[in-house]
Amino acid sequence: MSYLSNTKFDVIIVGAGPAGSTAAYTLAKNGLRVVVLERGRTAGSKTLYGGRVYSKPLEEVYENFRKEAPIERWVKKERFSFMSNGELLTLEYSSTDSTSFTAYLSRLASWMAQKAEEAGAVIVTDIRVDDLYLEDGVVKGVRCGDEVLRSNVVVDAEGVNRLILERFGMVPKLEKRQVALGLKQVIRLDASKIEGRLGLAAGEGLAWLIVGEATGYLPGGSFLYTNSSTISLGLVVFLEEAYQNINQHVFNILEDLKQKQSIKEVIADGVVIEYGAHLTPEMGLGMSPKKMYGDGLLIVGDAAGLLLNLGYTIRGVDFAAYSGYLAAKTILKAHSMGSYNSESLSFYQKLLEESFIMKEMKKHKKITKLMRSNEMFTIYPGILLDTVKKLFEIEYSSPTILQALRNSIKGKTSLLKLLWNIFRTFF
Amino acid sequence: MKKMKVDEVLNTNIWDVDSKPHIVVDYEKCRRLCNKKACVYLCPAGCYTLTGGEILFSYEGCVECGTCRVICPHEAITWNYPLSGRGVQYRYG
Asked: Which domains does chain A have, with CATH numbers?
């Protein structure tokens, strides 16, 4: 600690998650003196996510990423299902190609921290940052208990629970409408069983999202990702809607899902080896601070609200890492100019706006709003399954598609409203 | 796989529980102000239980997600992360 408080670093980074370590890696590689302060015992010991990462942005930042990173399986099969009354309607896409992989986030974060360390960054674990440290209203470091650590600039990569930014007054207290709660079990299972039961070739991965009964009909979705010899099974529920409607323990919803035939047969003889939960930004840019920078401060990753959930894909890790990369680029420029005031750090906002991150978040603004419509999770899965049931389970006469749909909708919603909702969600 | 209880599943994790709680609950507020008590259903680790109609909080199984802090409508929860890397130790995450 005294070594730390006696050393002046160019950059202090709060949090050794994907955003923090990627910023550290990029800065250290370019010769800056960087320290990452991580509250966990190791980098990655406090992080948790669903299970899948989109690769391309990481490949741009880390050389040899595909070869060296702790990748479990490349996702070759995508499944999206509606579940109602134990019945399942599934859309499945099998590809010869892959742009995403499954991984354990603890290991991926630890790998990134190691890369940063090899590049020359100092990673300090077991240390909780409590506050930003200011001189004349300018961020000049951080406080950990009674200690002050100084730097020219601080990168806030503290994650979704922005205790530091809230105390600083940069963001209001986190609200339940801004986040979702994710919970996950990691279940150990032989690779041959995973592949046999899910129709995967050796080494191939699957990502499966399920809405409807899989979350106890709460807005959100359940997920199943395959790792080499485990399955990540969990669910995400929007916290506001869950708060209003939940009528059982959220943990039991996951346990109930494990008992559904379609899931039960996949995880049979599996052993749970870890359970955890985490909040996730879910409001498009609604959780992001207006300015992602201040005098001597940059905000990255979940703390900046950079996560995109489209219902069938969820991107958090690549956004986080890439925002860390852009923050590092900004700092390198500021360093060469010798100024870390908010004007020179505003370059980060510009880089973000020009990058795929903000373009994606803005392009899909509508769908993230519509995902919050309750019907999508409560009524529609039942209507869909009911319609399909009428079409396939024939005794003597078979209905037309329109008849089946009309009969399934009866008393639940109007056909017009349903079609309109589907239309405005996807177009 | 048979249905599991939350304690059973939490026991599969590695823990280094602090001797001091990192979260403090003002039970008086829970008693006086809160009928809903959503923390009982929404804490994924089951840290909030009802005993005789009153909230009882135990921090030992906390996975540090922050849900209770966000949903409590009465600011009854003083929430922080554990010090010195204590608490849950994710190996997979």
From this structure: 2-174+287-364 (3.50.50.60), 178-281 (3.30.9.10), 379-426 (no CATH)
